[in-house]
Each structure stands twice: as C-alpha cells, then as structure tokens.
Amino acid sequence: MIAFLFDMDGTLVHSMPFHIRAWMQLLGELGMQMTPEEFLRQTSGQTNRQILQDVLRTPLSDVETEALAERKEALYRSLYRPHLQPIAGLVDFLNEARRLHLPMAVATAAGKANRDFVLEGLGIESYFSVVVGVEEVQHGKPHPEIFLKAAERLGVAPGNCLVFEDALAGIEAACRAGMRAVALATSVDAREFQRLPAVIRVVEDYTSLRPQSLLELLARP
Q1: Predicted TM-score (pTM) above 0.85
Q2: Which domains does the chain show, CATH number per domain?
Q3: Among candidates 71, 68, 76, 129, which has minimal Cα distance to 98?
Q4: Which of 7, 54, 92, 205 is catalytic?
C-alpha cells in the first residue's frame, strides 16, 4: 500500500509569499532587515523556534519565543485570509487519491491554528486521516522525524510513502526517511529539484498529476 504525505505551506496552498511578508514585517518591528531571498535560503523548512534562534541570534526565553511566533502567525493569517485557496488541481487530485483508497497525511511545521486555518478553511481536512504538526516533533526538516511519524501513524512503511514538498529541506527530509518525493516548484526554482535522487516528478501544481500515474511510476524498478 502506497501512502501520500503532504507538506502544507507551499504544497497544499501557495502561502509562502504571505509567510515571508509576515516574517519581514515582524523583523522590521524588531529593527532587523533581511531580504526575502536571504530569509528563505537561511530558514527553509525550519520551525519558528529554529528561525527565531538562527535569525535573531540572541537568547530568548520560551515565553519570548512563543510570543514572537504567535505574533508572526497572526500576521500571516491576517495577510493570507483574503487569498486563501488550494493550489491548482489539488482537490481533484485528492478526490482521485481517495477513490483509490490511498492513505493520506499532512506533515507540516505549522502549528494548530495555521493547520486549522488552511485545512478547515478550504474544507479539505476529511481527506487526511493523520495530521502531524510542529508540536509533535523535536526536530524540524531536514530531519526526517515528521515524515517518519506520519508514516508510523498511518501504519505504512517509509519506503511505501510518497512525499509532496515545496522546500529543499523537505525533500532532504523525505530522502533521509527513505521516501520518494514529488516536488512542487512554488517556492524554489524547478531546476533546484531536478538533481535530487528522491524526486520522481517536478511540477508547478497538481493539474498535470494523476495518482494512478504516480503509482505506476513508483512501481518501476
């Protein structure tokens, strides 16, 4: 049995530009300046805690870290709410995967408020029997923990999981978990993914993807 594991931001929704805008606004409030490109290169796939530690480079208490993370996520939801929509072709793809009885999970560094904002906001939460979020893992991507935990909760061997990701760190996490991946070129240039051995397809959205075709591709030696 093959299972599909989905990252969320940049993979189910084209939300990364709004996350970046929220981070830029927060960093501005803290008196810091950083280009979006620099920020993405430095922080791709990391949890909020990791980002705050790496970018601010100053000791923060747990309370301070949580307050800053909550401020950033509130900014993000406010910015993105008027634009919330699934990546093109996603719902048709999920419907076909469900007709094939494929187990599906979301594995994301997002917190519960953001997961609810996206999954419930789009009405797609019922497609996923498992959702693993940041509070359930100790290590952010590229560590494979989140994908391994999702596979375990689905009851599917890691080698039988196909990951859908938009970040290089997420693809590395899939590879380290012993999984193959479909790369969504929503946040990173498609050419960046083409050299990575875990990647079996690179696409802009889901309109050209069919679950059955992916199953056939995975079955090839």
Answers
A1: yes
A2: 3-15+84-219 (3.40.50.1000), 16-82 (1.10.150.240)
A3: 129
A4: 7
